[in-house]
Design a protein that fits this description.
- By secondary structure, this protein is an alpha+beta fold.
- It is about 35% helix and about 20% strand.
- The strands form 6 sheets. Strands 2-8-5-6 form a 4-stranded antiparallel beta sheet. It has a 4-stranded antiparallel beta sheet with strand order 11-18-15-16. It has a 4-stranded mixed beta sheet with strand order 13-12-17-14, with no helix packed on it.
- A hairpin with an 8-residue loop joins strand 5 and strand 6.
- The radius of gyration is 26 Å and the shape is elongated.
- The two termini are about 15 Å apart.
Amino acid sequence: MMQINKDKWQDVQYGKYVNHIEINETNPNVRKKARFVSVEHIESGNFKIVSWANEEMPTFFRTFKSGQILFGKRRAYQRKVAIANFDGICSPHIWALDAKNGLIQELLPFIMLTDPFYVYANANSAGTMSVYLKWPQLAKYTFKLPPIQMQKQIASLFLSVEKTIEDVEVHEKKLKVLWKRLINEFINNTPSFGNLLKDIELQKVTYCEVTEKVMRKIDPLTYGIERIVAGENLESEDFKIRTWQKIGKGYLGPAFHVLFMQGDILYGSRRTYLRKVSLADFDGVCANTTYVIRAKENLLLQDLLKHIMLSERFTQYSIGVSKGSTNPYINWKDLDNFTFQIPDIETQKKIVKVLDDVLIIIEQLKHQITNLKNLKQKLLNEILG
C-alpha cells in the first residue's frame, strides 16, 4: 500500500474548496440543441456520461460545462459522480461542481468517491422515500487537503487506474460484440461460422424438435433445496447466475416450486427482450414463469442451445410471439415454430468451444475490472479517506 506522509495536509471544509454552480439556461434556441442529463444518465462507478436526452426536459434548467464534476445529490448513497465531457443542462437533483482555493479539479471526484465522504453524505441526507442532500450540510464535510504538488501526484495515480479500467472495459465490450456476431451469423437464414461450416450438411429444425421444457414440481423445504432464483436474479446476456435468495430468508411464494438442476437452462418468459438466459451451475427452485429447458442432446448440445437463445433472431422471434403490452410474456408453445439450422454433433462441439472460449476471456476481464475497482477503492480510502 502507498505510504504518504500526511503531516502537512490541512483539515479543510468542503464548502470552502468547492463551488456548486447554479446558472440556469432559459433561451429556447439554446435548449432546443442542448443535451439533458438526469441522475439516471450517471452510472455508479463510471466517470463518463455515456447517455443523455436530446429532447427538452421542461424541469431541467441548470447548466454544466465540460470538465465540471456532476454529483447526484438525491440518493447520494448511489455514488453517482461524473466528469462532464460536454456542455449541457442537468436535473435539479444534480450539482455541477468546481474546485477552488488550491484544490485541483482533477482530485475532486476522487475525494468524493471515498467511503468517509459517503458515510457523511448518507448521515446528513434528509427524507425517507427519496433521500436528498442539501448544500449547507455537504459544505461542512471536512477532509484532509494535500499540498498542491501531492494533489497532482495523487490525481495522476488515480487517473491512470481509471484509464486502465477503461481499457479493460473496452476490450471486454469488443469481445462481447465478437461473441454476439458469431452467434448471429450462425443463427442466420444462411448460417456461417468461419470455416467450420464449410462443406457441412445442415439440418433444419424447429425449437420444439430439439428442446423440452422440464417441469419438476417439488416442495423445496422438504426437498432440501437452499437457493431460490427469481426473475431479477437472471441478468441480461449473462449465462451465470450470480445472485439468489435463501430458503427461509428470501420470499418463497407458492409459485417457487419448480426444481432446476445443474446444467439446466433457465429462461425468463416475461419481457423476453431482456435476453435472460442462464445456465445453472447449482440446484435450486424458480417460479413457473422461468422456464427450465433441456436440449435433446442426440440432436443439439445443451451448451450450444444457450448461445442460440441469445441470438438476435431468437430474441426477435420471442418478442414477436409474446402477449401483453405492459408486461409481455411468452407461452412455451409459442416457441415451437422457431426454425434454425444445425450441423452434426461433432461440428457443434467445435462451435461451442469457440464461443465458450470467448466467454471465458470475457469472464476473466470482468474479474480483472472488479479487482481493479476494488484496488482503486482501497487506495482511495487509504490515501484520501
